[in-house]
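Troubleshooting log. The previous structure file for this entry was overwritten by mistake, so regenerating from the original sequence record. Sequence copied from the archived sheet and checked twice against the printout by T.R.
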Amino acid sequence: MNSRLRLQQGFTLLEVMIALMVFALISMMAWQIIHGAMENSAFTDKQTANLSQLQLTWSRLERDLTQMLPRAVNGDDQALRLSENALSFTTQDGLASFGRPQEPDILRVTWRLKDNTLWREVAPALDLASPVEGVQVPVLEHVKSGQWRFFAEGWRSDWTSKTAIPQGVELTVTLENNEEWRWVFVVTDGWPITTEAAGAQGDTPTEPAQDPNASPQETQQPDAAGNAPAQPTTNTGAQP
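Regenerated output below.
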């Protein structure tokens, strides 16, 4: 009797197979959950890195374009030049020379699209006898195309003025995943243009010099009938 009870203890083969199947299903579900979480984490990290790169590019562009100067450089007679996949202009960057008074704060910056990457090139010197090659730094990767537009009493796709700078600049960036980003920057207004540069290039007409001691002229309005007012006459003859 006791030997028969000992023979009945333990699991049958069917029970073992069922237990193994349940364990395999639980393991597969756990692996899928962990794998999905890892994929979501990697996707989130990639999107965060892309967004951070876009924000850095926008911030760097904003600092360069909002402090643009109407100033040409040695070897280039245009203050702002748009060439094939490249935009060059002069800007003021106080952070570049912060703590280093020997470094210039007026720089020549070139934004260039090359090899699906948006590069920023900075030339630290402006008016040396020989041009100095700028330092190129990649800013935004996986760029499919880029298009510049300029605002000066309306949007235009080119810029031909040699001394003036636009009031606004627009950059439309298309990434390799067909995402499109449109950035609009307002250029700081009020920078003076020298008379020599304006007269030489012919973009801005020069006003005739005025005598600072001369009294201001009073403008007379026409009468109700629209006739011009009579001009006063000076009697140069003898007194009666």
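Residues 56-197 form one domain. Archived copy saved in two places this time.
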